[in-house]
Amino acid sequence: MGLRGAAHGEVKPDTVPPRDPQAHLREARQRFPALLL
Predict the structure, then answer these.
(1) Where are the alpha helices (DSSP H) in 1-37?
(2) CA 17, 20, 22 angle in degrees (round to 5)?
(3) The predicted structure's pLDDT at residue 25
(4) How confident is the model over 2-20, as pLDDT tens digits?
(5) Taking a C-beta distance cutoff of 8 angstroms, is the pair 5, 11 a contact?
(6) What pLDDT was estimated at residue 1?
């Protein structure tokens, strides 16, 4: 649920931030497929 802010341009993970930026994008796309095309 920490990536909820990503939809608003905020990157505040409630857990340890992923070392790989791509991992963050992959997870974000799974959570917000319609917002991050």
Answers:
(1) 21-31
(2) 110
(3) 80
(4) 555 555 555 665 666 657 7
(5) yes
(6) 47
Q: What single DSSP character describes residue 35?
A: T
Among positive and negative, which fits the CA dihedral 14, 34, 22, 11? negative
Kindly provide the b/e burial profile for residues 15-35, where b requires at least 16 CB atoms within 10 angstroms of the residue's own CB: eeeeeeeeebeeebeeeeeee
Tell me which H or E stretch contains 32: none
In the structure encoding, which two tokens stand for residue 16, read together?
Answer: 């340890």
**pLDDT tens per residue, range 22-32:** 887 888 888 87
- Locus of tokens 């917002």: 35
